[in-house]
Structure formats: C-alpha cells, structure tokens
Amino acid sequence: MAPILEVNGLRKEFKGFALKNISFTLERGYI
Asked: How does pLDDT run across 1-31, given as a tens digit for each residue?
C-alpha cells in the first residue's frame, strides 16, 4: 500500500509542477 501512496504523491507533485510550468509559459507568450 505504501508504494501506491508514494506514487500518488509524486503524481500530485508532478501535476503541480507541470501546471506551474504551463502557466509560466503562457505568461511569457510561448506555447
């Protein structure tokens, strides 16, 4: 069970990082 929770945590971290990257990219006018 622990590994599954770890993977879910990593996924959430990655999603947050990706969303920050996307919003940062859009702010600078690049897609």
From this structure: 578 888 888 899 999 999 999 898 888 876 5
- Element containing residue 31 per DSSP (H, E): none
Whether 21 contacts 27, CB under 8 Å? no
The whole-model pTM stands at: 0.54
CA dist 24 and 31 (Å) reads 10
Element housing 9 (H / E): helix 2-28
Task: Kindly list the domain boundaries of the chain, sorted by start residue.
Answer: 1-30
Which two structure tokens, joined as six digits, stand for 11? Answer: 């996924």
